Amino acid sequence: MSAVEIEQDLTIWMVDDIPQRMLYAGRRWRVTDIPTRLRESTWSAASAGATGLRGWRFQATDEAGESYVFDVFRAELGWHVHHTWS
């Protein structure tokens, strides 16, 4: 398993405030596990560029069947991917 630290914009669709689908890196993704809520303590404020972060960790699978684990957080201007694991 390899970890990649990135921070890119994405669009997330929620059902009952839980991530279900997303558009990221030009691909459509479907959440394929039970998302885990993340708190500020998961990231240092310096590495994520903000305080008071709230986010999610979940596995998502694209239309080609490729799956990754994503750490996503909501900032002032929308949702961002902070980490991915393949």
Radius of gyration equals 12 Å
What are the segments in which pLDDT stays under 50 over at least 5 consecutive residues? none
Q: What is the number of independent domains?
A: 1
Overall mean pLDDT stands at 83
Give the amount of beta strand, in percent: over 45%
Anisotropy-based shape = globular
Indicate the structural class: mainly beta
How far apart lie the N and C ends?
6 Å
- Helix fraction by DSSP (H/I, runs of at least 4): under 10%
Number of helices: 1
Main sheet attributes: strand count, strand direction, barrel closure: 6 strands, antiparallel, barrel
Strands, total number: 7
Helix-strand pattern, N to C? EEEEHEEE
Give me the side-by-side strand order of the main sheet.
Answer: 1-2-3-5-6-7
Q: What keywords describe this structure?
A:
86 residues; mainly beta; 1 helix; 7 strands; 5% helix
Describe the structure in brief.
The chain has 86 residues and is mainly β.
